[in-house]
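Q: My labmate handed me this sequence with no annotations at all. I'd like to see what the chain might look like in three dimensions before we decide whether it's worth expressing. Could you predict it?
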Amino acid sequence: MSKISLKNYSKKQRSVFTWWKNSPHFDGIICDGAIRSGKTSCMALSFVIWASMNFHGKAFAFCGKTISSLKRNMLEELIPRLESVGFIVKNQSAKNYLDISLGSVTNRFYIFGGKDEGSSSLIQGITLAGILLDEVALMPRSFVEQAVARCSLKGSKLWFNCNPDNSFHWFKKEWIDKREQKNLLYVHFSLNDNPSLSKAVIERYKRLYSGAFYKRFVLGKWSNTAGAVYPMFCYEKNTFSVPPERFDCYAVSCDYGTVNPASFGLWGRHNGCWYRIDEYYYNSREKGLQRTDEEHYKALEKLCQGKDIDMIVCDPSAASFIECVKRHGKFKITQGKNDVISGIRKVSDALRSGKIKISVKCEDALREFSQYRWDERAGSDSPVKENDHAMDDIRYFVTHFCKENTDSFFVSSIDR
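A: Here is what I predict for the chain of 416 residues:
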């Protein structure tokens, strides 16, 4: 292999080329940051060099959102660079793998796309010595975790690369925030870390974006976009870490799901304010197993254990679960009102007035508050039907339990 000159690379890029040699105790690396910051190209080349220096006759994988995007964004540039420094690349494009050789060493690099929940089945069964996941924040969690599980050979390492998304994104919460626990090196890139970008180009990127997208694409920060349904939600005002000592009433709100997530909230009232004390949130797609009405009911009983529940207000479409609760005879249950826009207005009023507060333990409700957005494509005022399960159960709760001020006025700014 011809010697690769690192003098034209930034300090951050050079660290990606050498981390596996200088810090071999790490099990992997995460690179995130601004668009066009130079993280992808150096990571791909370093990945192949590392594989060739440490393994022979083993299988590796490149993963992207789709196979076509991975080929376009990474491999079309990577293959000529590899060949320029002495690698021999046999591109089996129709079969979606590359055989890459350096001297007497040859390894196979498979190409996978992780576009949806069903993609995880494509990578099952294979044994890998390493994996590079490009734009990992765009992939479903099920695919990423299945891909990671494939790396079982001794000395295998994980390589993650992405641009930032919202601050509650599962990859940030589960991998970046827990990088020390998972023994991963973290390298954050800015536009200035790519020496191939001129000052004029950097300034152009700064002019192109504003708001949360400026924070993500230019500053490389994990931040939330505009168009939030509840822009008035304030973490300092609307959350709590230590609940009041006593509540004079308890209630539960339910948004029921089997294929979709089920979200139940436990509420307590103190001095006229309702506190979401705890929650049950079950996502069958993430868990890989659906729960029955009876299993959800057992979770409801556990959530309410030791509390005298005044009423459960439930998703009106959950007829079978409502009957299940009635059959057990332990709780009173009623159907919630499903007027979405009116309910959003009432939740907005309750947030502004401080009538509801959310425990910091209720991570799924807090995540959804940050992600729940108006649908810009709908042509009418309606929220996107994603990240809305805790939002729905909170809407049923507020509509039923929180009295509305008759003189209140609701205005919501929607970015179109």
